[in-house]
Amino acid sequence: MRARWGRRGSRRGGPGLPGTHLALLAASLLSTAVAIYVCWKQLPPLPWASPSPPRPVNVLLWWEPFRGRHNPRRPPPDCQRRFNISGCVLHTDRAAYEEAQAVLFHHRDLVKGPPDWPPPWGVQMPPVEEREGLVMDDEGQEAEAETSAALGPRPPGQRWVWMNFESPSHSPGLQGLAGNIFNWTLSYRADSDIFVPYGYLYPRTHPSEQPPGLVPPLARKQGLVAWVVSNWDERQARVRYYRQLSQYVTVDVFGKGGPGQPLPDAELVHTVARYKFYLAFENSQHLDYITEKLWRNAFLAGAVPVVLGPNRTNYERFVPSNAFIHVEDFPSASSLAAHLQFLDRNPTVYRGYFRWRRSHAVHVTSFWDEPWCLACQAVQKAGNQRKSVPNLAGWFQQ
C-alpha cells in the first residue's frame, strides 16, 4: 500500500511540519527578503544599469547668423522635439556665458569688428577692403551694439566653436584668426570636428515600398532646364558656363540679378519641380562645398541636378554616381546640351536618374537650429576630451 506522506503527515501531525513551524519559516523568509531589499537600495548603480538622463549642456550662440540689428531674436529650438537630442539648454542671452560649456561663433559676424567680442579675444581686425564684402543684407552692415564689457575671462573647460557654411572664397578674414583660440570647427567640411552638411541621403525604413512621387510624373515637367541664382557675378565660373550652355539649350533663370525672374523662396521647390533638370551650380568650387542647390533645389524638387562644384569623386562621397550629371563629364557645353536633349527624348533613360529614391530619401539641414543642437550633442559625446585648432585658416583653405 503506497504511503502518501505529505497528506497524512500534515493532517495527523506525523512527519510533516506543524503549522507553527510553517509560520516561523515564512516570517524568517520575509525578514530576509526585506533585509536584502534595504541593502540593495543602498548600493551604487551598476555601470550597465538603465542610463540616467544626460547632464544638461549649456550652449551659447554668440551671434545669431544674419540677424539684422533691429530684428528680434528667435527663440532657441527644442532639440529633443526637433532632432531627438536630449539634455540641451540653448542660449542667445550672453548672461549665460559663464555657465556655457560651449560657445558658437559664426564666422561672418566674427570678422565684422570688435565691439562685442568676448574677452579675451585673439582676432586681428581684417583689412577694410575685406570687411566691406562681408555683409549680405543692408541691416547687417554694422556689428551689434551689445557690449561684453561685463563678462569675465573665458571659463575653464569652455569650448569655443568656429561655425561657417560659406566657402573659403567667400570667407574673408580667415588669416586674422589667431591659432589655438578655437577648440572645434563646425562646417560643411566632412573633416570638421562637427560635420553638418547642407543635406544628406538616408536609407528608407522600408525600401521595397515606393512612396508617392518616387519618380516625378513627366507630364508635369513642362520645362527642360531651370536655374535659381541669387548673386549674379559675371566673373564666376557658374555664370560663364551658363552663358555657354544657354547657346544650345533653353535655360529658364529665376532669382535676383542677371536675367532672372523674381521667385519667392516659398515657391522655389514647386517651380523647379516643373523642370526635368536643375543647374546646381555652386558660387565657388571647393572641397565638400555642396549646398542646398543640390539637396533642396534639385533633389527635394524632383529634378535631375546638373552640378558644377567640386569634382565628381567628391560628389560621389555623398550621393550615388547615377543621381546627378557633372559638367566635367562633357568636353564642352554643347555636348552637355546634346545629352540633356537626348534624355528629354528618352524617358526610360531619364528615369534611371531616380533609381536611388527606391532605397534612400533626402534630408535638408535646418539652419540654424540643427547645427546648434548638433553642437550640444558633440559636447555630450566628447566628455573630457580636449583639443584646439592650431591653424584654422590653413585647414579651411586647403
TrEMBL record:
Residues 219-395 form the Fucosyltransferase C-terminal domain. Its EC number is 2.4.1.-. Pathway: Protein modification; protein glycosylation. GO terms for cellular component: cell periphery; cell surface; Golgi cisterna membrane; trans-Golgi network. The keyword Metal-binding does not apply. It catalyses: an N-acetyl-alpha-neuraminyl-(2->3)-beta-D-galactosyl-(1->4)-N-acetyl-beta-D-glucosaminyl derivative + GDP-beta-L-fucose = an alpha-Neu5Ac-(2->3)-beta-D-Gal-(1->4)-[alpha-L-Fuc-(1->3)]-beta-D-GlcNAc derivative + GDP + H(+); an alpha-Neu5Ac-(2->3)-beta-D-Gal-(1->4)-beta-D-GlcNAc6S derivative + GDP-beta-L-fucose = an alpha-Neu5Ac-(2->3)-beta-D-Gal-(1->4)-[alpha-L-Fuc-(1->3)]-beta-D-GlcNAc6S derivative + GDP + H(+); an alpha-Neu5Ac-(2->3)-beta-D-Gal-(1->4)-beta-D-GlcNAc-(1->3)-beta-D-Gal-(1->4)-beta-D-GlcNAc derivative + GDP-beta-L-fucose = an alpha-Neu5Ac-(2->3)-beta-D-Gal-(1->4)-beta-D-GlcNAc-(1->3)-beta-D-Gal-(1->4)-[alpha-L-Fuc-(1->3)]-beta-D-GlcNAc derivative + GDP + H(+); a beta-D-galactosyl-(1->4)-N-acetyl-beta-D-glucosaminyl derivative + GDP-beta-L-fucose = a beta-D-galactosyl-(1->4)-[alpha-L-fucosyl-(1->3)]-N-acetyl-beta-D-glucosaminyl derivative + GDP + H(+). It is found in: Golgi apparatus, Golgi stack membrane. It is a single-pass type II membrane protein. One of its GO terms (biological process) is lymphocyte migration into lymph node. The keyword Transmembrane applies. Keywords: Glycoprotein, Glycosyltransferase, Golgi apparatus, Inflammatory response, Membrane, Signal-anchor, Transferase, Transmembrane, Transmembrane helix. Pfam families: Glyco_tran_10_N (PF17039), Glyco_transf_10 (PF00852). Residues 56-199 form the Fucosyltransferase N-terminal domain. GO terms for molecular function: 4-galactosyl-N-acetylglucosaminide 3-alpha-L-fucosyltransferase activity. Belongs to the glycosyltransferase 10 family. Catalyzes alpha(1->3) linkage of fucosyl moiety transferred from GDP-beta-L-fucose to N-acetyl glucosamine (GlcNAc) within type 2 lactosamine (LacNAc, Gal-beta(1->4)GlcNAc) glycan attached to N- or O-linked glycoproteins. Robustly fucosylates nonsialylated distal LacNAc unit of the polylactosamine chain to form Lewis X antigen (CD15), a glycan determinant known to mediate important cellular functions in development and immunity. This is Fucosyltransferase.
